[in-house]
Amino acid sequence: MTCLYLDWNETVKDAKLINILNLIIAYEDSGPDVIVFQEIENNNVLQQLFNLLEPYGYSDYKLLEGNDYRGIDNAIIFNIQLKILGFITLSLAANLAIKIQDLF
Predict the structure, then answer these.
(1) pLDDT digits (tens, 9 = 90+) for 1-49
(2) What domains, with CATH codes, occur in the chain?
(3) 46 — alpha (psi -120 to 50), left (phi > 0) or beta?
């Protein structure tokens, strides 16, 4: 696996995935229900991360294809059932909200 201008390999990728996993599961039962990634390489990496998180109750994931010239996308992983019709607004803070359209 290579990334633009960086020397990525399986060992580095796996270490990063394990670091993300350990951070998320460190919260034990108080961890996030929804995890949104601003940058993720591709669906393959997302699926590998999801496979690590699935034993901890995470139930689904979606890749949000971007138009970044490097191929970087956005992603969402969640441990709750989400039924999305059209669009949903996720409130991230009092003055910050994002609209995710056509997730499913």
Answers:
(1) 445 556 678 999 999 999 999 999 998 878 888 899 988 888 999 999 9
(2) 10-101 (3.30.1370)
(3) alpha
